[in-house]
């Protein structure tokens, strides 16, 4: 495909954007994997439709406002990348385009956007906001829909704060040394995930550092087009994480995916090489444990049927599908179940369930019904956003199943096998 995209407008990110546009041959393999196309049935709400729209805007044939209504509906789940036979790197077009769109409408920045960017990346602020938000629930119908969705996703009570240590020694023979990315919203909504991660790593001979001065990885802002703000957050971490570790561990798919995009985020910046080097050292905890091998036995006291849900930023963005399933399948007394339409997003997608609540709710309900139909007694996933979305919609359907991070199930199996 020929293009007349003014690449200079996008600096070092321009060539990647043009390559993504050119690679698309409009074959349609992406259509059945696209959540918004499945819900809305509109060509312009499919990946190939959005590529056409973005191309027309970049070449000056279409206004940003005309395209944004459809581009803003994209979850950024990257299922289209997995399905594409031409290797279109859709994410390398979407993120810079959203950054351009954000620049063009900064004056229209609404209260919801401000609340997201000023609270979610900062655990203490988010905890305060979430605590106050509970008092607003009875009045949510008086608020704009995005803020209603934000309140609906908040739990009725927050778990106790878990103060992360700066260092956890390996139990027994030391087999590896890693650093842990602590995450942001996860520390507030589900601090037990980090606790379980440290326990499983430690009992498998892994020494863990948790840099105290680390901050948000910037993924939340990166995926909503706020690239300069994302760079500012990410830049702080470049000097924080040690280089002499076997890996930097993440236990949130969105964070891992975001850091793996640091090369694109810092393209043309002085920190580009260092950012890419940091990204190369990042591994999801399931990948690291599967590669290292577990030394502790895994057994549940009672039989349990567990459905595994692929977080999009783990399965599609990072290509991690086998490792979590392999770890879960190694647990005695655990039966692993697959979900119908497993490749389709649950509707969480970072802040999507706040910004596009109607579509997110439909996708969340579809995924919750798939879990119920599977006959699962519990559900496992590798991302805090997915866990929150699944729990919300399962409860909406009257099903109060345990919704757990994969690492929490591994910890339970370790504890019960040694009891």
Characterization of this structure:
- This protein has 419 residues and is α/β, with parallel strands linked by helices.
- Among the domains are: 101 residues, Alpha-helical ferredoxin (Fumarate Reductase Iron-sulfur Protein, Chain B, domain 2, Orthogonal Bundle); 124 residues, Rossmann fold (3-Layer(aba) Sandwich).
- It is built from 23 helices and nine strands.
- The strands form two sheets. Strands 1-3-2-4-5 form a five-stranded mixed sheet. Strands 7-6-8-9 form a four-stranded parallel sheet, with helices on both faces.
- Strand 8, helix 22 and strand 9 form a beta-alpha-beta unit.
- It is globular, with a radius of gyration of 21 Å.
- About 1% of the residues have low confidence.
Report the radius of gyration as a whole number of Å.
21 Å
Strand content: 5-15%
CATH fold group of the domain at 167-290 = Rossmann fold
Q: Any idea what the CATH architecture of the domain at 167-290 is?
A: 3-Layer(aba) Sandwich
- The CATH top-level class label of the domain at 167-290: Alpha Beta
Write down how many β-strands occur, each being a DSSP E stretch of 2 or more residues.
Answer: 9
Structural class: alpha/beta
**Low-confidence parts, pLDDT < 50 over ≥5 residues?**
104-109
Mean pLDDT across all residues, rounded? 89
How widely separated are the two ends? 63 Å
Largest beta-sheet details: 5 strands, mixed
Number of helices: 23
- Neighbour order of strands in the largest sheet: 1-3-2-4-5
Give the overall silhouette.
Answer: globular
The helicity comes to: 40-55%
